[in-house]
Every structure is written in structure tokens, then in C-alpha cells.
Hints:
The protein is an all-alpha fold. The protein has a single domain, classed as Growth Hormone, Chain: A. The protein has a two-stranded antiparallel sheet with strand order 1-2.
Amino acid sequence: MPGGPGGSGTGVNTGSLFWAIIMSAFAAFGGILFGYDTGTIGGVIAMPNWLETFGVYDPSVATAGDLGYYLPTAHKSLVVSILSAGTFFGALLAFPMADIVGRKWGIVASCGVFCLGVGLQLDTHWTTFVVGRVIAGFGVGLVSCLIPMYQSECAPKSLRGMIVGLYQLAITIGALLAAIVLNATKNELSYTAWRTPIAVQFAWAAILSGGIALLPESPRFLMHKGREDEARRALARFMTMPPESPEVELELDEIATALAADRAIGQGTYMDCFRNNESKNGLRTWTGIWLQGWQQLTGINFIFYYGTTFFESAGITNAFIITIIADVVNTVMTIVGVQLIDRVGRRRLLLIGAIGMCFCEFIVAIVGVTAGRTDTAAVNIPAQRVLIAFVCFYIAFYAISWGPVVWVVTGEIFPLNIRAKAMSLSVASNWLWNFGIGYATPYLVDPSTTGVNGVATANLGVKVFFIWGSTCLGCFIFTYFFIPEVKGLSLEQIDLLYRESSVLKSDSYRRQMLEVGETYVQKKKGDGYVEEKGQV
């Protein structure tokens, strides 16, 4: 976004930064919806009363502290991963919600869908509980696409990385809150044990929908729909300037010029998303789709979906406390990470995070299959401490990089003409991989069972970290070849970078753009600078 008469692209007037950040960052509260649910289900399925309500009775596994109820592997996979099936379809339908209803009111409507799903999960019938998770997931899928889109379109470019990264921070805070609530109710012997953590989600949806209703609509959405007067007023609120001010006019001119350039080469259809035209739409769309997929392939949700049961199977006592520790690490390091995005850069953080996670996961796998084995007479306490420590290091690397940065990049690399469609496809990819990994993990990790309800599994246990370590190496390779550096650029300048540079040369070209303040308006005017830049 250009921010002043000189077209510097600062996005908002310096005096308005506070309110712009408040209005943009509040939308990040939507991350709590997903983070809290992710953190809740892993603990809920381990609670005695929930297992008595939805599980299967087997007297052969009953002990003094276990009444003999357990959840079959197929049911565990279904109840954990089915939310992601709902989010997949929710993300796909975020396009019509974003482009027809709007970014702002789309988020409000999504909260209503989410609340319906939460209410159904309070029932004691298995089918109703599962359907509730699907509907709640549908709402989360809508929100997960609309929130980063709204933030990216409303945030000042100099702080866009931090503001959009707040969505991931909200996810981690949600997971931490879930762990705290679960720890407080886990000893209850009634329905209260699991209904309370689930019902708390009504509060998160109410706060998000109530707050977002007070914020302005995205000026870029309004310009996309041809509602220029409304866009001017919304932008004026973000900039805390009169709607008729020159700064607001320059901002609208830049957005309109970039939108016209996009429309000149495509009508914004789904086919346009995959055409490698002058704007490199195909490259950008596939980058978003695979970037979201690689985020899931880091294996992070293995810890947050199955962390409690995994730590218990690894011989670690009080697994609920270890899960809280992991959530604290995730939250604290995400706070660090969102402050690094606009300083270190998107591309560099992704590269650092991929290598760090790869190293930590291989250490966890090696320790787990050697000194940390649980099939021996006694548990190796030092080995278990190393395992916990490197799991925490792994979470820390994820939290400063692939957690927040992926949402930032997905929110900013698409041109306005196809942004809603391309983002919906990208976020749907996240949830598709989330569903697949969530469903397959018990079959990869859990031991095989026998009897009437017996299920054959791979029984990898901690060896599954060899898989996650290898996929993190894939994350590094993908980032190197497909993720450009766009730190400090407005959304319209990112369009120019894709048009005039390559991924590997993006950082040097970005610096040149910032030095001379290249904008679409300048290119439209055809001044001498633009002609000179065209030969770079």
C-alpha cells in the first residue's frame, strides 16, 4: 500500500498505526477457534467418562485405574480427523463467502456455523458428536481462510507479517487454554469432564463475531466489488484520515491500478488461478497449495492431536502436564516468531525452521528407538528427558517459522482478482493434509490389537519421527525453490515482483523496489524510472 504523497507504500499514516494494528490484529482471535479445538480433542478422548460414553468395553484391559473402556483405532482416527474433513469443505466455500458476503460478515456468519457444531458435540450419541465435529470444522475452515485474507488486506505492509502471524499466535493460545481447561476438569467423573472444555468454545465464537462486526470491511474487497465510495470510507478509518484526503486517494489509486492490471489478463475464474500468465497465477496458486500442505507434513499436529496419548505410551508420567509445557513453548515462541517475520523475512525464517525441525525430529526418533525404548524392564529417565526436550525444541522451531509464516505468505502472494479463490484452494489443501495425517497417524503409531475389534497397524511408535524429519527436509527444498522474499512490500508491489523477477532473485529485486519505491501507479504513468526498471 502506498501511504503518502510520495507513494512510498507504507500502507497507513504513521499516526494511525495503533488503530490499524488493533483493527487488523483483532481478527486473529479466530485462530483460537481452531487452536482450542485442536488442543481439546486430544485430551477429551483420553478422559474416563468420555470413553465410558463413546468407547468400547473390554474386561480384559480393565485395571485398578481403568474400567476397561477404550476407543478403537478406527473411531479414534475418525473423531480426531473428521473436523479436518469439515474444514476442507469450509475452506473451499470460503471463496463465495468472501466474494459475495464479504470478508467481515463472512467471518460473522462462520462463527454461527461453528456454534451449531459445538452444540451438537455436547450430545452423548456417537453419531451426533461426530456430525457436530464436521459442522464445527466447516465453520473453522471458513474462518481459517477469511481471517488471514482480511488481515492481509487491511494491515500496513511494514507490519503485515506480524499482524497476520497473530492468527497463528491465537491458534497456540487456544491450544494452551484448552490444555489448562482439560487439566482442570480431567478428574471429574461425570459428563462435566468433557462437556465443559467443549462448551467453552461458545465464548470464543461470541467474542470474535461480536468484535469483528464493529470493524470496517476490507477496502480491497470493496474496490473489487466496485464500491469505491465505501472503500474510501473504510480505508479512511484504517488511516484515521478524512475520506477526501490525498493519502486516501493515492491508496485507492494504487489498489485500482493493480486490480485493473490483473483483470486485463484474466477474469478471476478458477481457471485463471492456474494459468501461468504475466502475473504467474499458476505458480502462485500451486505455491500456496503446496506450502499449506508442507506445513501439515512437518508433523506438528501429531503432537497436538495425539500428544497426551503419545507421551503416555512413551512411559512419561503425567502426560497432561507435559502437553501443557509443549503448549506453553508453542505460545511463547510464536510470540517471538511473529516479531521476526518483518525483520528476518519470510523465506529465511522458513529455511531456518525447516532445518531446525528436521534435526530435532531425527534426534527424537534416534533416542526413542535406542535409549528411550519402553519395552524394557525400566524406563530410561534421562532418555525420556532428552525426548521431551527435543520435542520442545522442535515445537519452538515450528512456532517461529512454519507456524505463523505460512499463513502470512498465503495471505499476501495472490493478486486481488483471484485472491479469494486461490486462498480457499490453499487453505483447503491444509485441511485435506490435516485430515489425512490425523486419520492415518493412529494406524502408523498405535500398536496392533487383537480380538473382535482388533486392528492391524504399523506400530511405528516414536519411529514416526523419522517420517516427520524427512518431510521437514522436503520443506527446506520447497522453500528454497518456490518461496520468494517479500518482506516490506505492499500487496500490489508483490504483484510487481512476481511479474518482473524470479523466486531465487526475489530478495535482491525486492531491495531495488524498496530503494526507488516502485508502484503500479508509476508504471501506469510510464515515467523514465519504469522504462529503466523494465530492463533490469
